[in-house]
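Journal club prep, notes for RB
We'll compare a predicted complex against what the paper describes. Inputs for the manganese (III) ion case:
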Amino acid sequence: MIKTILTISALAFFSLGVSAQPTNKFINQEKLKTMEANKNNTPVNHQFMPLPYAYDALEPHIDKLTMEIHYSRHHRVYYDNFIKAISGTPLENMTINELFEKMSTLPAAVRNNGGGYYNHELFWENMAPGGVPMSENFGKILTSKFGSLEKLKEEFAAAGMTRFGSGWAWLNVDVNGNLFISSTPNQDNPLMDIAEKRGTPLLAMDVWEHAYYLKYQNKRADYITAFWNVINWKVVEERYDEAIVKNK
Ligand code: MN3
């Protein structure tokens, strides 16, 4: 799945690079230039993708400085350390999903940094300036599972709030097509064989302090409420459709 996402993003990026005249006002120009310069040096399997919008595009819900530090420093370090951890080993030819499936047997550096890299790629993609509404059909699917969208929101927020320390909240779908909400510690995710409950992540929310501390300080609940305003439900639904087809 991540491969598809990366391929689509790579194609979008490539076409932008060729035209040199990006029309999407949310694309971060500086990042694109950096990516253009770096693209021949990055391993094909795992690329450091440009942020799909500018650092300030999620304001006022997520502030510019938080996004800049989060993407250009935290995310970058996970990526670099992940590549370092797999380079020159048999792991470098594996897909990220293959790595996650045998995570219990791999070094901590692969788990922490591979997870950090992947989780953030999902996170950037499932946010959009002002949010993108869900389709009527997907709204019905979610409502039939959770009772109402309000209930889904409550359960998802609770997963984020009750995660002690650092981690992630997730909306997932399991191999039988059942939707469920979960949370994982540190940079783990539901694809890893060490996850309490395994499934395909559809929606990722970072609840590490670095995701919100500059604007919200200790008020994680306020950040979680704000996050709801920037969810790209179109992307969430696409992941759902993809997972359902794959598991058939
Ligand atoms: Mn983070």
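Talking point for the session: The chain has two domains: 1-42, 63-248.
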